[in-house]
Each structure stands twice: as structure tokens, then as C-alpha cells.
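Quick start: read one record
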Amino acid sequence: MIEELQRLRSSKVITYFLAEGAAIGEDVVPWLYKHLLQIGHQDQIDLFLVSRGGATDVPWRIVTLIREFADRFCVLVPYHAASAATHICLGADEVVMTEVAQLGPVDPSRMHPLLPNDPFIPAGQDPKPLSISVQDLRQFIQFVARTDNAENMQVSDPTAIYTELMRHVHPLVIGAMEQTYTLAKQLTKSMLALHMDPVAEADKIEQLADRFADYYQSHSYPISRRELKDLGLNVLFAPDDLRDAMWGLYEHYTQRRMHIDAQAMSLGASGTTQTISADAASYVDSEVASAVGFRSTDKNGKVIGGMWIGWYP
């Protein structure tokens, strides 16, 4: 299937498929690098990408790494490439999309140790902080400001509202959230500048950065290929044969199941062993190599770690 995509695209293809619940992380970078070393420098490399998102700072590493090995970098999106995956697409010379494909806003969500614990964590599992959308916080602050300035809707004491907010959200968290938002917007501009003129098209880059970071009122808003085309991005509507090949590979990954059980020994004084189950969470494949990222869980289904297994000639 990869070879068929390469034939249709006259390129070399690397896949990066993440299962539901898996997130883009820095651990994939060395494996992508191994693929690129095997493939060597090419006129064009296409990244077949399926992901709901992940770490904000990793897309820049992925895009700049692939560009070291290609004169032209493109992304093939059969279905969803949201959040951090959208950032990868914004760094591409061309984005190829099926009718059902969608990108998403890049306003990030963030966990912070000073945030309150998530009250919906199942009993018996370790507590973890809430994940808060940057836009949720910004929209709240803007709402208070609008209400305070609106006729007949003045807030009697806006200071009290902010004080109450600080009781639930530590001031350092607010600073960290704003930093994450600024990074996401900066990253959008940097990605676009890889294939747009940062001087001649500076206004357009700024407008697109505002659009992806601020315009959409939901982080899960689906941005269609037609909307992206109207925004001026270089989007190719996949012709039927290419669409069928992309969707066939997508279905292959969604139907593929890899599972392993292993005995692991604890490093504590007891030296006890426990059975660890691991399911495939991500795949990085090309015509020359394969790698599978496993997400390991204990007998209660709690995620306790991960590992990659690769096959290379």
C-alpha cells in the first residue's frame, strides 16, 4: 500500500499513524530519523499522518527533520490531523486531503501540577491535574471584561471574580497557559514561513496564525479541505485513485491490532514481578522499515509506560 502511494505521488512515503488516545511525542523523532537515514535524501517526501494531536513543541522537530532529507515536504491526510498534527500540516508545501479529512485549531490544552486534580479520574487510579484549554481561560477573562464594560451589565466588583479564579487556578498556571498559547501561535508562523515568503506574505502569515489560534471557538472544530483552500493554503483534493489508496491504508491501520504480554520485575526491594500488557499505539512505516510504539498497562488498565519495537534491514 505504501508503494502504491509512492507510485501515485512520485515520492517517498513515511507513515505516522496514532491510535485513539495516543499523542504525538518526542519519542517518535529517533524512529523517524532512522527511516530517513534508510531512505536518504529525496526530491519529495510525503508524510501519511493520522493523529488527534499531542505535544506542542514536537511538530517543529518533525517537520524540520524531514525537510533536512527532502527538497519538498508534503502531508497526506486521510481522516483527522488535529491540533499538533495540524501544525505539522501547516509546515508542509502541500496538504493532500480526502473528502472526510479535517484539520483543527491549534489552541493548546495543558496540564500543570498546580492545577486542581481531575475529579473524573476513576477510583483506584492515581490522581492527575485537570487539562485546561488555553482558550477556556482566555474566553473567561474576556467575558468578564466585556461584561464589566457592557451597558447595564457592569460587574459590581470584577476584582472579586479574579480573586475567586485565583483560588482555583494558580497565578503561575495562568502564566504558563499564556506562554503555551504564545508558543502555539509562534509555531504556526514559523511553520508557514517554511514555504511562504516571511516578508512579502507577512500579513497573510499573521492572519492565518490568528485564524488557527483564535478564530475557532472549539478546539475540536473540524476544518475541512474546502475551508483550508479558501484560506489560501496549498491543499490538494485527492483524486479518486489517490483517495482510495489513502483510505485503504487508513483502514489497514485501524483494523490492525498488535498486543503483547510480558513479565516485568520491579526494581524495589521486593523484586516482585508483574504481568504487563502492551497494545500498539502508533506506527511509523516506510518501504524500507517499520516501527511500532506500544503503550503498556497493568492489570487494572492503568498506563504505566511505553516502548518502541523496530524492524530495519
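Residues 25 and 202 are 30 Å apart (CA to CA).
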